[in-house]
TrEMBL record:
Pfam entry (one): Sec15_C
This protein's encoding gene: EXOC6
Protein name, UniProt field: Exocyst complex component
Family: Belongs to the SEC15 family.
Sequence ranges assigned to domain Exocyst complex component EXOC6/Sec15 N-terminal in this UniProt record: 50-219
GO biological process: Golgi to plasma membrane transport; intracellular protein transport; vesicle tethering involved in exocytosis
Keywords in alphabetical order: Exocytosis, Transport
Residue span(s) of domain Exocyst complex subunit EXOC6/Sec15 C-terminal: 412-760
Keyword Transport applies: yes
InterPro entries recorded: EXOC6/Sec15, EXOC6/Sec15_C, EXOC6/Sec15_C_dom1, EXOC6_Sec15_N, EXOC6PINT-1/Sec15/Tip20_C_dom2
Alphabetized Gene3D superfamilies for the sequence: Dsl1p vesicle tethering complex, Tip20p subunit, domain D, Exocyst complex subunit Sec15 C-terminal domain, N-terminal subdomain
Function according to Swiss-Prot or TrEMBL: Component of the exocyst complex involved in the docking of exocytic vesicles with fusion sites on the plasma membrane.
Cellular component terms per the entry's GO annotation: exocyst; plasma membrane
C-alpha cells in the first residue's frame, strides 16, 4: 500500500517534469533533469518508463497525423511532377533570358564601373576642394604676411600673425605645412622686433641731427607770434593814449611802422607755417610702439626709448667750449634744446604712455638746471653788450617757445635778472670808453654858434635855456663845450640800451622804471663820475680846461631833471610815485666840480711855483733895482689872465681860487726868505724883495676877482708886509715892547721868523764891504749899534725859547 501510495505520488511529478522538458528551452533542461536524480530511489527508472510511455503516445499521434495527410502529399507530388516539365522549359527560357541579359548588361556593367570610378573621383575631388578651401585662406594669409614683411608693414604683419594663430591655423593644424608655419612665426616676430628697433635707432639719430632745425622753426614761430601780439598791444596802447617815445619818434609813426612790418611778415610766413610733423617722420616711433604693444613687450620699448633720449638730452645740454664767442653758438645751443623738447612734447600728446608728463617734467627740471649753469658760466665771459643783449633776446624767445609747450620757465627769467646786471656792467664799460673818447675829442672851449640853424640843432640835442643868450645876435657862443650835448645824448642812448634789455621780461612798468633809473644812476655816479675824475687828474688838462669842465658839469647837472622826464615818458611812471628812484646826477656833478676846483687850486699853485722857481735874486745887492722883479710881473700878468677866464665860474670858486693863489704866493715868498740854504741877505735885497711884495699887494688891491670885501685879498700878504716893515723901519723896540699884545703893529710877525731873517741880515752886514753895507757909517760913528743888533737877537731867541717851552 505504501509503495502504491508512493507510486501515485510520483506520477504527477514525472508528468510535471516531462511538461517542463517539452516546454523549456534546451539550455535550461539541466536543472529539470537533475531533479529526476535528486528524488526518491528508483525514481529514474520510473521516469524512464514514463518517458517511454510519453514517446509512444507521441509516435501514435504522428502516425495518425501522417495517415491523415498522406493523400494530400501524394496529390502534391503528382502535381509537382506535372509542373517539372514546365519548370524545365521555364528554366531554359530563364537561362536563355539570363544569357541574353548578361550579354546586354556587360556594356552597362562597364559603364557602371566607369560611373562608379567617376563618382569616387568626384567624391575625392570634392574632398580635396573642401580641404583646399580650408587651406587656401591660410596660405593666402601667410602669403599676405610675407608681402607685409617685404613691404615693412610690420604692424599689419603682426596683426596677420594673430589672425593666423587664432583663426586659420586651428582649422588646418593637422597638416605639416601648418606646423612649419607655426614654428616660423616666433622667428618672424623677432625679426620684426629687430627691424623696428633698428628703425627706431635710425629715427633717434635723425632727430638728434635735425633737432636744431626743429627748434629753429619752433622758436621762429614763437617769435612771430610774439611780435604780432606785442604789435597789437602797442596799437591798443596808442588807441588808449599811452605815449611811449623812443628814438624821438611819435607813437603813431612808430607803431604804424611796426604794425606794417609785422603784418608783412605774418603774410609772408603764413603759407610757410611748419609743424614738427612736417619736419620729422614719427612713423618709426608709432610702428615700433605698436609692434612692441602687440608683442606684449611695451615696457621694454618704453625703457629703451627713455634711456636713449636721456642720453641725447645730456649731449644736447653739453655746450661747445667757444659758445660764448658768437651769438650763433648760443642760438645753436638753444635750437637743439627746443627741438629736443618739442619732439618729446609731440610724443607725449600722440602716444599712450611712451612719454608721461612726470617724465618730461623730470627731464625738463634736469635740463633747466644744466641750462642755467651753462648760461651763467658762459655769459660771464661776454664783454660785448650787444652780444649780451642778443643772448637775452634768445633766452626770452627760448623761454617763450618752451612755455608755449607747457614747460615752466620762471627760473630762466630769474637768470635774466642776473644777466641784466652783467649787461649793465658791460654797458658801463662800453660807455666809459665812449665818455673817454668824447673827453679826448673835446676842445674845452665854448661852442661857437654862427646862425639860427646851428643853434636849433644844439638845442634839439641838449636842453639849454638862457634868455640873455637868446637875445644876443649871431655869431655867439654857448657857455659849455661840445662834450656836454654829446654826453647828454650818450646818457639817453645808454637809457635806450638799458631799456632794450628790460623789454620782454614780463615785468611791470614800475619795475622797468626802477631798473632804468638804477642803471642810469650807476652810469652817472660810477662811470661818468670816474671818467670826469680821471679827466680832471690828467697832467695835460690845464687851468682853462678845468674851468670849462666846471662849467660843463654845471650844465650837465641842470640837465638831470630832463633825463628824469625822459625816463618818465618811456615808462609812463610819474616821478611823484612813492617808490620812484631819483637820479643821483646832482651829487655826481657836484663831486666832479669840487674835484675840478681842487685841481684848479693845485695847478694854480703849481704854476705859481714854476714862476717862483724862476726868481733870481741877488741877495748881496747894495741897492734895489727900483722896479719889481721880472718873474713876479710875469706871474702877476699870468694870474690876471687866468682870473679873467674865471669870470665864467661861480663867484665863490673864483674868489677861493684867487685867495688860494695869493696865499700860496705869499707862503712861497716867505719860504724863499727863510730858505735854510740862503745864509745872508743884504738890506738892498730886502728892499728889492719889498718892491715885489708891493706889486703883489697892488695886484690884490686891484680886485682881480670881484666879490671881495675891502682889503680881504690883501690880507694874504699881511705876514710878509709886517715882517718887511719891521726890517725896513727897523722898529725892533716897538716889536719887542708890543709883542703878545692884540693891538701890536707887528702882530703877524713870528719871533722865530724875525730871528731867522735878522740873522741872515746880520751876516750880510758883516760880510759885505763897507761901501755896500748900510751900517758902515754906524760902525764908524758908534759901535753900539752892533751891540743893539746882538741884543735884539738875544731877546728874539729868548722869545723863541719861551714859545717852545710854552708849547
Amino acid at each position: 500500500m505504501a509503495e502504491s501510495g508512493e507510486g501515485l505520488g510520483t506520477v504527477p511529478e514525472h508528468e510535471r517534469i516531462l511538461q517542463e522538458i517539452q516546454s523549456t528551452d534546451t539550455a535550461c533542461v539541466g536543472p529539470t533533469l537533475r531533479s529526476v536524480y535528486d528524488d526518491q530511489p528508483n525514481a529514474h527508472k520510473k521516469f524512464m518508463e514514463k518517458l517511454d510511455a510519453c514517446i509512444r503516445n507521441h509516435d501514435k499521434e504522428i502516425e495518425k497525423m501522417c495517415n491523415f495527410h498522406h493523400q494530400g502529399f501524394v496529390d502534391a507530388i503528382t502535381e509537382l511532377l506535372k509542373v517539372r516539365t514546365d519548370a524545365e522549359k521555364l528554366k531554359v527560357q530563364v537561362t536563355d533570358t539570363n544569357r541574353r541579359f548578361q550579354d546586354a548588361g556587360k556594356e552597362v556593367i562597364v559603364q557602371t564601373e566607369d560611373i562608379i570610378r567617376c563618382r569616387i573621383q568626384q567624391r575625392n575631388i570634392t574632398t580635396v576642394v573642401e580641404k583646399l578651401q580650408l587651406c587656401l585662406p591660410v596660405l593666402e594669409m601667410y602669403s599676405k604676411l610675407k608681402e607685409q614683411m617685404s613691404a615693412k608693414r610690420y604692424y599689419s604683419a603682426l596683426k596677420t600673425m594673430e589672425q593666423l594663430e587664432n583663426v586659420y591655423f586651428p582649422r588646418v593644424s593637422q597638416y605639416r605645412f601648418c606646423q612649419l608655419m607655426i614654428e616660423n612665426l616666433p622667428k618672424l616676430r623677432e625679426d620684426i622686433k629687430e627691424v623696428s628697433m633698428s628703425d627706431l635707432k635710425d629715427f633717434l639719430e635723425s632727430i638728434r641731427k635735425h633737432s636744431d632745425k626743429i627748434g629753429e622753426t619752433a622758436m621762429k614761430q614763437a617769435q612771430q607770434q610774439k611780435i604780432f601780439s606785442v604789435t597789437l598791444q602797442k596799437r591798443n596802447n596808442v588807441k588808449f593814449g599811452k605815449n611811449i617815445y623812443i628814438n624821438n619818434r611819435s607813437p603813431d609813426e612808430r607803431n604804424k611802422t611796426v604794425l606794417k612790418h609785422a603784418f608783412e611778415e605774418e603774410d609772408e610766413n603764413e603759407e610757410e607755417v611748419l609743424t614738427v610733423q612736417d619736419l620729422v617722420d614719427f612713423s618709426p616711433v608709432y610702428r615700433c610702439l605698436h609692434i612692441y604693444s602687440v608683442l606684449g613687450d611695451e615696457e621694454t620699448f618704453e625703457n629703451y626709448y627713455r634711456k636713449q633720449r636721456k642720453k641725447q638730452a645730456r649731449l644736447v645740454l653739453q655746450p661747445q667750449s667757444n659758445m660764448h664767442e658768437t651769438v650763433d653758438g648760443y642760438r645753436r645751443y638753444f635750437t637743439q634744446i627746443v627741438g629736443f623738447f618739442v619732439v618729446e612734447d609731440h610724443i607725449l600728446h600722440v602716444t599712450q604712455g611712451l612719454v608721461t608728463r612726470a617724465y618730461t617734467d623730470e627731464l625738463w627740471n634736469m635740463a633747466l638746471s644744466k641750462i642755467i649753469a651753462v648760461l651763467r658760466a658762459h655769459s660771464s665771459y661776454c664783454t660785448d653788450p650787444d652780444l649780451v643783449l642778443e643772448l637775452k633776446n634768445l633766452i626770452v624767445i627760448f623761454a617763450d617757445t618752451l612755455q608755449g609747450y607747457g614747460f615752466p620757465v620762471n627760473r630762466l627769467f630769474d637768470l635774466l635778472f642776473e644777466i641784466r646786471d652783467q649787461y649793465n656792467e658791460t654797458l658801463l664799460k662800453k660807455w666809459a670808453g665812449v665818455f673817454r673818447d668824447i673827453f679826448e675829442e673835446d676842445n674845452y672851449s665854448p661852442i661857437p654858434i654862427v646862425n639860427e640853424e646851428e643853434y636849433k640843432v644844439i638845442i634839439s640835442k641838449f636842453p639849454f635855456q638862457d634868455s640873455d643868450l637868446e637875445k644876443q645876435s649871431f655869431p655867439k657862443k654857448l657857455p659849455m663845450s661840445q662834450s656836454v650835448p654829446h654826453i647828454y645824448i650818450q646818457v639817453k642812448e645808454f637809457i635806450y640800451a638799458s631799456l632794450k634789455f628790460s623789454e620782454s621780461l614780463h615785468r611791470s612798468s614800475t619795475e622797468i622804471d626802477d631798473m632804468l633809473r638804477k642803471s642810469t644812476n650807476l652810469l652817472l655816479t660810477r662811470t661818468l663820475s670816474s671818467c670826469l675824475l680821471n679827466l680832471i687828474r690828467k697832467p695835460h688838462i690845464g687851468l682853462t680846461e678845468l674851468v670849462q669842465i666846471i662849467i660843463n658839469t654845471t650844465h650837465l647837472e641842470q640837465a638831470c631833471k630832463y633825463l628824469e622826464d625822459f625816463i618818465t615818458n618811456i615808462t609812463n611812471i610819474s616821478q611823484e610815485t612813492v617808490h620812484t628812484t631819483r637820479l643821483y646826477g646832482l651829487s655826481t656833478f657836484k663831486d666832479a666840480r669840487h674835484a675840478a676846483e681842487g685841481e684848479i687850486y693845485t695847478k694854480l699853485n703849481q704854476k705859481i711855483d714854476e714862476f717862483v722857481q724862476l726868481a733870481d735874486y741877488d741877495w748881496t745887492m747894495s741897492e734895489p733895482d727900483g722896479r719889481a722883479s721880472g718873474y713876479l710881473m710875469d706871474l702877476i700878468n699870468f694870474l690876471r689872465s687866468i682870473f679873467q677866464v674865471f669870470t665864467h665860474l661861480p663867484g665863490k670858486v673864483a674868489q677861493t681860487a684867487c685867495m688860494s693863489a695869493c696865499q700860496h704866493l705869499s707862503t712861497s715868498l716867505m719860504q724863499m726868505l727863510l730858505d735854510s740854504e740862503l745864509k745872508q741877505i743884504s738890506m738892498g735885497a730886502v728892499q728889492q724883495f719889498n718892491l715885489d711884495v708891493i706889486q703883489c699887494e697892488l695886484f690884490a688891491s686891484s680886485e682881480p676877482v670881484p666879490g671881495f670885501q675891502g682889503d680881504t685879498l690883501q690880507l694874504a700878504f699881511i705876514d710878509l708886509r709886517q715882517l718887511l716893515d719891521l726890517f725896513m723901519v727897523w722898529d725892533w723896540s716897538t716889536y719887542l715892547a708890543d709883542y703878545g699884545q692884540p693891538a701890536s703893529k707887528y702882530l703877524r710877525v713870528n719871533p722865530n721868523t724875525a730871528l731867522t731873517l735878522l740873522e741872515k741880515v746880520h751876516r750880510g752886514m758883516k760880510d759885505t764891504s763897507k761901501k755896500n753895507n748900510i751900517f758902515a757909517q754906524f760902525r764908524k760913528n758908534d759901535r753900539d749899534k752892533q751891540k743893539l743888533i746882538e741884543t735884539v737877537v738875544k731877546q728874539l731867541r729868548s722869545l723863541v725859547n719861551g714859545m717852545s717851552q710854552h708849547t
